[in-house]
Amino acid sequence: MLKDILEKKKCFKLVCGAGNEDADEVEKLVYLYSMAGCNFFDLCAKPEIVAAAKNGLKRAGIFNDRYLCVSVGIKGDPHVSKADINPDKCKQCSLCNDICLQNAIFHDNNGYTVNSKRCIGCARCLKVCKNDAIAITSEYKNLNEVLPPIVEMGIDCIELHALGENELEVDEKWTDINNSFDGILSICIDRSKLGNEALLKRVNRMLSCRKPYSTIIQADGAPMSGADDDFKTTLQTVATAEIFQNANLPVYILLSGGTNSKSTELAKICGINPNGVAIGSYARKIVRSYIMKEDFFDNPNSISAALKLAQDLVNKSLEHMG
Question: pLDDT at residue 38 above 80?
């Protein structure tokens, strides 16, 4: 059960991307990382993506001890947002294309365009655009319509990205999730808009309707910033996790946001003892050149090379926990 790996502090969560709607990529990632020892997968809340993840597990021949989580968010949350390029303002400098880790920006006869299925809303392109040609948008989703067909497919967790300042929408979404699913829930939260006191106040309010140890707190240090592999990148997630550890809440704590191969090592050095780690940008980055190949599943050399990288990351992360 999912609770078992959390209690044993041996949970490695691969974040495929709450906004990643590329079913082909998700299937490859789940296939690869499941064989590497990853036991928890974070997915976009769409039936076709959950199906792709299940296909990845089936292709790997793994049917036990692997768990699926779907993520949803409030309006404005970067995890469920998409970039859009205004062709009238775009000067075709290629900076956005060069910096996109998801290969979501491409060039055609109409200039640079965003593949919305691949875009995860990280806003790297927005930050480098010098011509105000890029906007980040998110759309409202009725969870009472989105979640039931996914829950029926069989999942193990639902995560709410409770980022931002709209307390009313956080409470409404949290109520909808609790009414839709009776399993483990996860709260992904950071300090970008909230101080420590406000952060704990929100979390305690959300936990008031939950049984002890039925909830994960995903301490999101710096969301979607983990492309680099150094201690500084992962510093904020360790600091955020410390807030929840010191509060002695009846929850499981995962490191997230800026996480990389050094996250659990830094946590151990700092006396932080999480139940697991969730790695997205860095985990996807190190295998991207292999899984982008169309013949990936038919290329033993690509699979072997990518699997070695994935295994090293999973093993290094888990050895510092517990």
Answer: yes
